[in-house]
Predict the structure.
Amino acid sequence: MAYHIEELISEEKVNARIKEIGEQVSRDYAGKTVHLICVLKGGSFFMTELAKRISCNVSLDFMSVSSYGSDTKSSGIVKIVKDLDESINGKDVLVVEDIVDSGRTLSYLLAMLKDRGPASIRLCTLLDKPDRRVKEVKVDYTGFEIPDEFVVGYGLDYDQLYRNLPYIGIVKFDD
Ligand code: IMP
Ligand code: MG
C-alpha cells in the first residue's frame, strides 16, 4: 500500500524539548547519578540526545524486549530479548522509551525492574499517545503528547525503516 510521511514535530522542536527535559532531569537528580535504561531499539536516539543534555552524573544500560504472540498481547507479557548488563540494585533508574502507546510494555517492564531493588525508578518517554492507553502507566517526563496516529522518526520505525529521521512524522496511507 502506498504511503507518505507527513511532518508532525520538526527537528528543531524535538531538539528544544529534549534540551528542556535534560535540564529538568539535571535539577531532579542533582548530586546523584542517574542510571538511564534505554529500551531498544526505539529509545536509542532519544536516550543519547537526552544524556548529552543532562549535567549530573549519568550511567547507562540497554535492554531489548518483544511482545509474545498477538494472542497473548492482552496479557501484556513481554519477552526479554536482551537483559541489562549491570544490576540496578540501589540505583536511581530512569527508563527511557520512544513512545507509550497501550502502556502494556512499560507497565510490565517497570514492575519487573522494581523487583530488582532500584533506589528509585522513573519513566521518561519522548512521545505519549494517551488516547490509546489500556494499562495505566505513570509517566514522569513526557516530550510530547500526540494524537492516535502511527508515527516514525527519532528512533520509531515502520517495518524497521525511518528510525533515522531527525523529526517525527505521521505515516499517511494513500487511497
Ligand atoms: P505499548 O503499546 O505501549 O506497549 O507500546 C509498544 C511499542 O509499540 C512501543 O514501544 C513502540 O515500539 C511501538 N509503537 C507504538 N506506537 C507506535 C507508533 O506510532 N510508531 C512506531 N512504533 C510504535
Ligand atoms: Mg519501543
User: Anything to note?
Assistant: Helices lie at 11-28, 43-52, 104-114. The beta strands are 3-9, 33-40, 57-67, 78-82, 92-100, 120-128, 141-145, 151-152, 168-173. The chain has one domain: 11-148. The first strand starts at residue 3 and ends at 9.
